[in-house]
Amino acid sequence: MKTKDAILENVMNGRPISDLVIDCHTHYDGFPFYSLIAKPYEKQLVFHQNAFEWIFYHPGLRELIRCMDSLGINKICMFAEPDVCVKSVKKCPGRFLPFITAPGRDILNDITLGVYGMLRKPPASTPDEIEEELQRDYDLGFRGIKLWWSKVRTPDIPQYARLLEFSNKHKFVIVNHNWIDYKILSEIASSYPNIAFIMGHGLMFDKEAVPVLQERENVFQSTTNLCVRESLEMYVKNVGADKLVFGSDALLHSFAFTLGNIAYAKISYKDKCKILGLNMKKIILDRGHWETWGFHQESTSQQK
């Protein structure tokens, strides 16, 4: 007997998805909400990049929650400045999983870390400063890091090594913009088994990524920007649905676009449920953070 696909049925009828949905890749602070049509929001601005003029508006939390509820999104991993994350979690407990955004400055990269590297005032630089920043945000309830690196860094960089050591100790989730060198990613994932490494962007099925996804239990692929036809089906066929997590790249991109790609994919209802939320929940549960991520923790000094 064919299993009823409640996800596709809800989407086709314009209803919120009723199954668990956790978005592993969203920007709330660094990238304002993208709009094709200018809207009269107070914080509206024009951003020029590569000779294109993009019109942005930045929604308040009330509008963001309304959007999430209209689609059936339960939680999002929030990439934003620490104070923005903390305020958001306090106002809407249980909806946001705050991520530390690219600690350290361009010593971890050939160039600056993009908008994230420029947001730190002052940016962390030494290994000790990076660990202090990580500890400070950990004490506030952060359990993940979003990196903006053009390629995988080897742990022989002291700052990166300290970041990985701290993340492994505290069982963090790390989302990187992309991991170009899969061999190095495989070595890092093996050396730091407590960290969940998520490939931040997909675009299309990448057969070069298959070995590391198959071999490393703690490496996962986000559906962010996975827009080439049947790419999702190819990933499910080659590595299994357990290795995929829903990511939209909102608010730069649309929640609905990626949800639609998954809802209409030619995969089973069971696999859709895993990708949309169950896999990410398992990643968090396996690291013991489901009840603590986003909730204020006592500082290290207070625990002694």
What's the main sheet like? 8 strands, parallel
The CATH class of the domain at 98-303 is identified as: Alpha Beta
Distance between the termini: 58 Å
The gross shape turns out to be: globular
Beta content comes to 15-25%
Q: Low-confidence stretches at least 5 residues in length (pLDDT < 50)? A: 30-56, 105-122, 297-304
> Could you state the CATH homologous superfamily of the domain at 98-303?
Metal-dependent hydrolases
CATH topology of the domain at 98-303, which one?
TIM Barrel
The helix-and-strand class reads alpha/beta
Total number of beta strands: 11
What Rg is obtained from the alpha carbons, in whole angstroms?
Answer: 19 Å
Characterization of this structure:
With 304 residues, the protein is α/β, with parallel strands linked by helices. The protein has a domain at 98-303: Metal-dependent hydrolases (TIM Barrel), CATH 3.20.20.140. 38% of the residues lie in helices and 16% in strands. The protein contains twelve helices and eleven strands. The strands form two sheets. It has an eight-stranded parallel sheet, sandwiched between helices. The chain has a three-stranded antiparallel sheet with strand order 2-4-3, with no helix packed on it. Strand 8, helix 7 (182-191) and strand 9 form a beta-alpha-beta unit. The radius of gyration is 19 Å and the shape is globular. Mean pLDDT is 80; it is low at 30-56, 105-122 and 297-304.
